[in-house]
Amino acid sequence: MKLNATQLLERVVSLNASDLHVSVGSKPYVRIKTVLSILEDFDVLTVDDVEYFLSQILDTQQREVLEVNKELDFSVALGGKARFRVNAFFQKGYPSAALRHIPMSIPSLEALNLPPYLVNLCRIKSGLILVVGPTGHGKSTTIASMIDKINEDRAEHILTVEDPIEYIFANKKSLVEQREMFLDTHDWTVALKSMLRQDPNVILVGEMRDSETISSALEIAETGHLVFATLHTNSASQTVERIVSSFPSEKQNEVRVQLSQVLEVVISQRLIPSPT
């Protein structure tokens, strides 16, 4: 029997797993509460299985990009039940995929048991708010929850640029417009500069990946907008050092001054296993 993508993704949702791994020569793996487990009732996956699985979740253009670049980030929806952030790639010459499960509903800050202080941060009108931590430790969920709090409480124009789009926001008091890399824009820096001409109040930068993106985010915050962004760092001090060191030495003092003027908070987080 061919590997049915819908059935496998529904299984991930029913298990409340955070991640799914599909790889040639192995049964599917899922991660539940940080623990990686094998789906024992599935067969070991062949090349045909993985290729067929990917053919069900990729469009023609995405398949072409994957064949050329050998890796691709995109998102896929499972009806109205869930979304998945997907990284498709090759290993040992064979296709593989890692999928992150993204619930359709955005959890509240209270539901996430995050500190009440974060509610106060959602009242800030301008500056830079960074959420940092290792991959897979809930940075996107925390930011989505904070932005949705703003969406509920304030009439603002919220713009995002993401790779790919993860949580989908429904307009509440705010108008939320989300742009996905390579679908709605082809360049982070160009997209961020264009946003300044789109009457924004709040901007989400999916990830500050390089000095150009960081510089654009700082400049937007300097102009009186509220900017959210993520970084893969482990502490507030490391975050500041990472930002500064991404620039040439002759620009680092200037960047330190910019940070001192716009940085509101660095939220550093790491998930720990539940005791239950």
Automatic annotation (TrEMBL):
Protein origin, superkingdom: Bacteria
InterPro entries, sorted: P-loop_NTPase, PilT/PilU, T2SS/T4SS_dom, T4SS_GSP_E_ATPase
GO molecular function: ATP binding; ATP hydrolysis activity
Bacterial type II secretion system protein E domain: residues covered: 8-273
Pfam families per the UniProt record, alphabetical: T2SSE (PF00437)
Family named by the database record: Belongs to the GSP E family.
NCBIfam families the record matches: pilT_fam
Protein name (Swiss-Prot/TrEMBL): Type IV pili twitching motility protein PilT
Originating species: candidate division WWE3 bacterium
